Amino acid sequence: MKRKNNHILTELLGAVENRQASVGIVGLGYVGLPLAIAFHGAGFVVRGFDVDSKKVPLLKAGKSYLRHIPSREIRAMAASGRFVPTDDFSLIKDTDCVCICVPTPLSRFREPDLSYVIKTAESIARFLRPGHLIVLESTTYPGTTEEDVRPILERTGLKAGRDFFLAFSPEREDPNNPKFSTSTIPKVVGGTSPSCLKAAQALYGKVIGKTVPVSSTRVAEASKLLENIYRSVNIALVNELKVCFDRMGIDIWEVIEAAKTKPFGFQAFYPGPGLGGHCIPIDPFYLTWKAREYDFHTRFIELAGEINTAMPYHVVSRVIEALNAKGKGVKGSRILVLGIAYKKDIDDVRESPSLKLIALLREKGAKVDYHDPYIPRTKKTREYDLKMVSAPLTPKNLGRYDCVIISTDHSAFDYGSIVKHSRLVVDTRNAAGRIRSKKIVKA
Questions:
Q1: Which fold has domain 244-442?
Q2: What is the pLDDT of residue 202?
Q3: What pTM value is reported for the model?
Q4: 107-132 tens-digit pLDDT
Q5: Is the pLDDT of residue 4 over 80?
Q6: Cβ neighbourhood burial of 143 (10 Å; 0-12, 13-18, 19+)
Q7: Where in the chain is the domain with CATH 3.40.50.720?
Q8: In the chain, is it the N or the C terminus that has fewer CB atoms within a 10 Å radius of its CB?
Q9: Is 241 exposed, middle or buried (0-12, 13-18, 19+ CB in 10 A)?
Q10: Was domain 2-219 assigned CATH 3.40.50.720?
Q11: Is 97 one of the catalytic residues?
């Protein structure tokens, strides 16, 4: 039996080494599409699987649906004949390696929703064959690969580590980061057996500059959670200090700039109107949920979540105070929210605090518009369906609003012009920090 395993592993490693192995990417979003580009660029045949009927035709036509990925890259892939976007999951049988890059959201009760992972595993199981390498990349709690994915795949009668290879390698994408790309971010890899680890490490070694092998899939799963919990807790710290220092008449931004001059022992984190994106607001609660199984209460994680979740309410309070200072109530006021992407210079609104801000201000009776150069109209999200269209950002239009809130600090915004033509600016990102004006209120 061990000889058979060695033969299957040797065959897969040889195919990977010669770029003859084909790679399937399930989920062509912010994680899967850059990964597909990386494997294609390394000379592999790539099959991209997605259940979104709109994405597949766009990719076949050589068009990108993500702002930070230019269409010319997709056109080059489509023209090469080595990239096959499809919604036909039966083509998994024609792939040698499959990377699962599907969402892992929270339910309305803040419990892990593994439905996308489970459905994907079930789809793969229907076409699983000896020699397949399956790698889960979706962020999740420790134990998912072994306890949830592995049993589904092994119902076929094939065994992980013997007949096929199973691993976990957490995604580390940071959309539109100019310093790092899929290929330059070190890749943590954990296998369900030594042969599984060897297979996965060999695959990623062809497209990633550095792979970081760990002893198990559980360690790999936990490492991604630690990364995001670290950020969540530290952002909560500076968010809390922002509120505290504001009452003391101290500018948190100036404090951070002073503190970060220390060349050791300090890393700068920055406050904002809340947390956004698919990682930091969600992933820590995967560990919170799993920890209950071990009768453990993750107090730091939950406290950080409470603080970060409260930030949109703090911003609304500052808006109300600023309007009151001008003799204006929030009810009936016209308010413009600048930026609804969760961070600057991207078109991703997942878990964006701007959406919560808009909803809260509407509840207070304000008439709210938004402007975002990268998001011409809102789409339905997990919590919101605002049905809004981006308002024009012109000097004349700015002057019509009682308050302008800088929620996302896009580089495309001319903050000098925004302050000049607005009646009141509530700045949640210190975007207008160098501009001296009594119109500006920091929040």
A1: Rossmann fold (3.40.50)
A2: 98
A3: 0.93
A4: 878 899 999 999 999 999 999 999 99
A5: no
A6: middle
A7: 2-219, 244-442
A8: N
A9: middle
A10: yes
A11: no
